[in-house]
Amino acid sequence: MVSVLQNVAIDCADAYELARFWSGVTGRPLHPDDRPGDPEIQVMLAEGPMLHFNQVPEPKTSKNRLHLCLRPDTSRDEEAARLQDLGASFVADHRNPDGTGWVILADPEGNEFCVLRSEAERRR
């Protein structure tokens, strides 16, 4: 017997608005039944588990123990800039002079995530 990963759940203050941000990040739609004000919203990813946003009353208080890592189809730096334009904030720079490394950003509610190098950048 095994378990199948159904979704990645993210606690948040405003499920709809945070799901809209992540919909913009991934380019994937919200679940068609989800509406503003719903306490649970899902982003329908093309493959793998869904992103599931749970509205909770308590605020985020410390560093994430689990986070998402994104591999863009453009360059890491172009994607980091695009995501900041969507509302992400810069947290830390782990880029190296040789082009390796990653950037840590936070979504509008402070959940950290990494932007990795694209596959093309990794082949260089």
From TrEMBL:
Domain Glyoxalase-like: 8-116
CDD domains named in the record: VOC
InterPro entries: Glyas_Bleomycin-R_OHBP_Dase, Glyoxalase_6
Pfam family, one: Glyoxalase_6
Matching Gene3D superfamilies: 2,3-Dihydroxybiphenyl 1,2-Dioxygenase, domain 1 (3.10.180.10)
Name of the molecule in the record: Glyoxalase
Species, as recorded: Actinocatenispora rupis
